Amino acid sequence: MGTRRFTDEDPQLDALYADLADIDLQPLWRLSGVLTGEPVSRAQPYRWRGKQLREVGDRAGRLVPLDKGGDRRVLSCANPGLGGAPYATPTLWAGLQHLDGHEYAPAHHHTPAALRFVFEGSGVWTLVDGDPIHMARGDLVLTPSWTFHEHHNTTADPMMWLDVLDVPLVSYLESIFYEVGPSDEVNRRTAARSAAEQRWALGAGLTPVARDLPEPPADHSPLLVYRWSDTDDALRVLAGTVERDARLRFTDPARGTDVMPTMRCEMQRVPAGRTTTPHRQTGSRVGAVLNGTGTLVIAGHEFDIEPGDVFAVPSWSWLTLASETAEDLDVFTVSDAPVLEAIRLYREEWREEQQ
Amino acid sequence: MGTRRFTDEDPQLDALYADLADIDLQPLWRLSGVLTGEPVSRAQPYRWRGKQLREVGDRAGRLVPLDKGGDRRVLSCANPGLGGAPYATPTLWAGLQHLDGHEYAPAHHHTPAALRFVFEGSGVWTLVDGDPIHMARGDLVLTPSWTFHEHHNTTADPMMWLDVLDVPLVSYLESIFYEVGPSDEVNRRTAARSAAEQRWALGAGLTPVARDLPEPPADHSPLLVYRWSDTDDALRVLAGTVERDARLRFTDPARGTDVMPTMRCEMQRVPAGRTTTPHRQTGSRVGAVLNGTGTLVIAGHEFDIEPGDVFAVPSWSWLTLASETAEDLDVFTVSDAPVLEAIRLYREEWREEQQ
Amino acid sequence: MGTRRFTDEDPQLDALYADLADIDLQPLWRLSGVLTGEPVSRAQPYRWRGKQLREVGDRAGRLVPLDKGGDRRVLSCANPGLGGAPYATPTLWAGLQHLDGHEYAPAHHHTPAALRFVFEGSGVWTLVDGDPIHMARGDLVLTPSWTFHEHHNTTADPMMWLDVLDVPLVSYLESIFYEVGPSDEVNRRTAARSAAEQRWALGAGLTPVARDLPEPPADHSPLLVYRWSDTDDALRVLAGTVERDARLRFTDPARGTDVMPTMRCEMQRVPAGRTTTPHRQTGSRVGAVLNGTGTLVIAGHEFDIEPGDVFAVPSWSWLTLASETAEDLDVFTVSDAPVLEAIRLYREEWREEQQ
Amino acid sequence: MGTRRFTDEDPQLDALYADLADIDLQPLWRLSGVLTGEPVSRAQPYRWRGKQLREVGDRAGRLVPLDKGGDRRVLSCANPGLGGAPYATPTLWAGLQHLDGHEYAPAHHHTPAALRFVFEGSGVWTLVDGDPIHMARGDLVLTPSWTFHEHHNTTADPMMWLDVLDVPLVSYLESIFYEVGPSDEVNRRTAARSAAEQRWALGAGLTPVARDLPEPPADHSPLLVYRWSDTDDALRVLAGTVERDARLRFTDPARGTDVMPTMRCEMQRVPAGRTTTPHRQTGSRVGAVLNGTGTLVIAGHEFDIEPGDVFAVPSWSWLTLASETAEDLDVFTVSDAPVLEAIRLYREEWREEQQ
Q1: What does residue B96 show for φ and ψ, rounded to 5 degrees?
Q2: Beta carbons of D256 and A230 less than 8 Å apart
Q3: What's the confidence (pLDDT) of residue C240?
Q4: Backbone phi, then psi, for D23, in 5-degree steps?
């Protein structure tokens, strides 16, 4: 449905258009770009430099206090295509969070779901509904929709990590609810292993049952953290068995579904010297480089990447990852694919001519 | 998370903010309105007048040709809160479609799903993937995502109806695909009863099975039309059995779910002289008045309503309907509730103090 | 796995066999018939004559009192292949129940599910968890597992109907629980239309929703009766649209599934002069002739049938129905197919050479 | 519904009873025991001694050849309550399978599902649809319904293990199909790790995805073996976190459901000196002792148990396990609970007064 092809120099038509505007109607035949042959994305292919993120994160840590009862110290990736909105893609927020030594970010909850991905460091615990989860390099930590969460740093050194949230989506759907935590008390609990892991990380297909164990939550994975050592081991096996383009999907061990209803989390290892088959999917993605250097090509735009880099992949844009050194390239991605699958709009394809 | 409370007159901070802007980052602590206590809607409570819709529809019918291979003659309801976008709410498109006597709107398909609701008239057939469905007063006709659809008018008189689509949602999710029909041939098939009804409208809980009958489609109701006479009969029974605030939900007879994955369709009968309990839900709604007159209150804004009126209910806005004459008020509504339910963001509540 | 092919005249072997018997072990290699190429049924193809059922039912009505707090006056179809058990097939009980004029069968509930199919008469109400359901010719009435049910006859004339239960299955699975009703009071409520129908028989795909309406039960169809007039209308449409071998399946209108988790109910109309394609399925079936006369062939055994006849179809037995008069043949069937589907053992096939 | 309470010395009644018998009907009021207040089990609480199983297994190995193309060398546990049938419970078959050094049991498949549980030894591979799975002490190996399976011993020593199948259930449902393998060739493939493990045992919530990876099978767990080292590790964590009566359920890592649609597999560790809370459930169970000694009480019958013992728990029978030595008691159980859950007949309870 493009622009109509007739010339509408007609006073009656002009009068109609004026009357339509008066009563808040618009003639479809004068609208263009409503139904396009393929998705057209507003977001741009983009990469934020890890080095720069760390540098400004450090400065923010020194300059900006984190008041008690206050906010998070987060630098949000703002995709230049999105008209000034603090969003990495139309549906995903990505930001670098900085917590000073011994600092504390108080409890709150909100309908947007969040996850943390740790580029480096350790010593911070995130409490999810009171369950203390240690955060360390390569770990993925979930704070699902409406779960209370707070962070505290047990060390003297600052720590930074990547936050990804579905804030733009939930904001678009006008379903944001937010509350501060029930208590002003700072909760500085720690534990070597979260309660979530004690029950749900016993191994593939090993599920404890007992009278007094609660049912897994209906809305998200009961396992709230995926440890790098497990992920790394799994990637190693995977790299040895699947020819190419295999990814590791983080899933709900109680149901096999995505970890949260709005975000799909995956980790891809591109072996040294290899390039992935170009792939595209409806909906957008945020990527984060954990290990290795190489090249990222999004819709023809080429970016060199290194650990700590964050990038945005717009909907239906071809994506290729190349590991160009002797080291494997490990890339974490978050997408809105579960949303699109739930409402039957998910499509994906590979560019066959590549090899 | 409101605006930070510290005064940031600090040259170092100014330098940081400038550097952040340079590398497309935004400091969360300077953003306000990201996480609100409750949903804040951009859309306004709004009502479009049926009389005006018909009047401009008639004029458009006289002035604007519908070229072969071309578009639809549709007037789109543009909510004044949405910055000029041709959308009734952030997720829903509503428009009046006009088809002249003997006119034909050629086949196309698109990922946005559509439905038709008929205020008056008859004599137009919509073909959905070739199945001819007659459209008449009070009927609800589905053209689910990616089904080919075309309309033709067998009478000499123009006909108008309400279109509702999830175009804003699918556009936001950057998942619009569109194709014209496979053939230039005008298909003017008619049938007294669609194939969909022959199989799926045999009665509640009566499902034919046979070797050569296809499985119901995975993504939407196999029943593509809900006839007014059936709806009216059901509303009559319902009004006699449920005390108040009962609605009739149009559902997939093969699964009991909503008719399409993105839109919930309901019809509510407010008995003469009655007022509904104020109700609100996350996500937005479009309403259409089929019968009766009365008053509509949305978030405190009062509108008188009559047959043919169309209205928009923003997210989390209190809605009340009052039938003020001796006639029952019949209101058809479409909402995005299935989307919110699928991703676990649906909430609703009733205002208890009312009676 | 047939009998082993070696000669076992060996004293050591004899000693082993004796020792095995002593400690309750059996050598698999001496067992035959455990794993057969195809299902071997113990039940026989069988037909009980409606005339005879009615005649002995009448006599039982005259001779056998139905004590208060006591039992049901039921004559159970005992398949001759089942060693004297009162079962029509290995999984299904079928019996003729007789209720005298003004008589009353008191409330009880049990884990076996039951259904009633009415060959003739009217004037009895079955109360299912208190909801009064009138029973008349051609009606299918459900009394799902663990629902309280009682029957009372409002007329002076006796009434008889067919009961089908999953008693043999639940007995085999050693899961029978039984309790008498909570009250000694005779409940003689009647209603022109059951509450179940008021809510769930509003039409295909028309589902009422309201604050105070309970969720449909998790375990069975909320619609507890399927009326003959609706079934008859649907069969008429079906006969006009599907070439042959179409059946009408009674389904849960809230979910589209079978009416109860253990029994599939269907009605088949064989048009006058037609024969069905031979068909077989794993699991057994009970059939009942409502209208018409003809011939039934089960695994090569031929039976003439007329209204009121009841028959048993063993697992994996070919079944053909022929309507041999000018009248359509209407046959109701109950099978255990939902059980087999749930545990992935259901198979069916048609004999292709037939036409 | 017990036996009727009236005296039926009545010549007319005698005549009726004779006539009923002639036409294969039975009067319900003369039947007793059809609907009991609670389940009544035919099976007996029973324990087979591991020492005896091994002793007769060894003798069978020496005396009974395993012909090519022939059977399995299996000793079936025959519950004395089941009238001579070779079944451990009404729904479950349990047998000790013996394979000589370098011996081979050829491929076949059948609709009954099977699993293997290994008490001791190693060196045998089971190929499931060609995927070689090594069997060693404490491992659980699945051969789901209709998968081809064969066993071969790579060592010079015999090996024995426990087979559990749902043969009685599938036989009762008259749904047994059986075929020998497609090839006469002996397949002696081995692999350090099965393909199933390479993909599905990467860790809790870690699922590989790739273009060329097949979807998990619809009917059973894609993970075909659960290794003792993983189970043991998980039991150790579990024992440290859950107060008592925790069991480890073997689940489908792709869906979180039971490993097969007919059998639930669990492993319970009773810490040294502890006794479990008495528990009962509808449906029957087979147990096998892997480690430790103690006492088993089933419906009041007490049995001392030691490694290698196999036992049968009838439906709705109270079960208690006590570990009476300094060693933990590890007990593997198989039940038909998934069948009962699927058809909504599953109930369970704990005896509260115990501690």
Answers
A1: -95, 120
A2: no
A3: 85
A4: -110, 25
Give the C-alpha separation, A187 to A189, whole Å.
6
The HSE-up count of residue D186 (CA atoms within 13 Å, CB side) is 14
Residue B220, SS3 per DSSP: coil
Task: Let me know if residue D1 belongs to a domain.
Answer: no
Query: Is the sign of the CA dihedral D186, D191, D193, D196 positive or negative?
Result: negative
CB of C114 within 8 A of CB of C163? yes
C90 in the Ramachandran plot: left (φ > 0), alpha (ψ -120 to 50) or beta?
Answer: alpha
Q: Are C334 and C343 in contact (CB under 8 A)?
A: no
CB D77 within 8 A of CB D310: yes
Tokens of C150: 């009682």
Is C33 a domain residue? no
Average pLDDT, chain B: 93
Over chain C (355 residues), what is each successive 10-residue block's mean pLDDT?
Answer: 53 95 95 93 97 97 74 94 97 97 95 98 97 98 98 97 98 97 89 96 95 91 98 94 87 97 98 95 98 97 98 98 92 98 97 65
Amino acid at C128: V
Is C touching D (3+ C-beta pairs, cut-off 8 A)? yes
Query: Does B144 reach chain A within 8 Å, measured CB to CB?
Result: no
D76 touches chain C (CB under 8 A): yes
- The answer to whether residue A25 is domain-embedded is no
Q: Give the ipTM of the model, two decimals please.
A: 0.95
The CA distances from residue D3 to C33, C97, D6, in Å, are 37, 17, 9
Q: Does D106 touch chain A (CB under 8 A)?
A: no
Number of domains in chain C: 1
Pairwise CB contact (< 8 Å): A207 & D249: yes
Written as tens digits, the pLDDT of chain A (355 aa) is 334 445 557 899 999 999 999 999 999 998 888 999 999 999 999 999 999 999 999 999 999 988 644 578 999 999 999 999 999 999 999 999 999 999 999 999 999 999 999 999 999 999 999 999 999 999 999 999 999 999 999 999 999 999 999 999 999 999 999 999 988 788 999 999 999 999 999 999 999 999 888 899 999 999 999 999 999 999 999 988 877 888 999 999 999 999 999 999 999 999 999 999 999 999 999 999 999 999 999 999 999 999 999 999 999 999 999 998 789 999 999 999 999 999 999 999 999 764 4
Residue B158 domain boundaries = 46-350
pLDDT digits (tens, 9 = 90+) for C85-108: 999 999 999 999 999 999 999 999
CB contact under 8 A, C314 and D174: yes
Per DSSP, the three-state class of D108 is strand
Per-residue pLDDT at D233 exceeds 90? yes
Q: How far is CA A110 from each of CA A75, A107, B7, C135, rounded to the nearest angstrom?
A: 19, 11, 27, 54
Assign residue D190 the CATH number of its domain: 2.60.120.10
Closest alpha carbon to C70 in C99, C108, C101, C124: C108
* Cross-chain CB nearest to D65 (options C6, C171, C315): C6
Residue environment code for B114-130, b if the CB has 16+ CB neighbours within 10 A, otherwise e: bbbbbbebebbbbbbbe
Half-sphere exposure at residue A123, Cβ-oriented, CA atoms within 13 angstroms: 17
Q: Tell me the sheet residues that pair with B334.
A: B265, B286
Q: List CB contacts of B257: < 8 A, sequence separation 6 or more.
A: B251, B338
Question: Is residue C35 one of the residues assigned to a domain?
Answer: no
- Which residues lie closer than 8 Å to D347 by C-beta, 6 or more apart? C175, C177, D281, D282
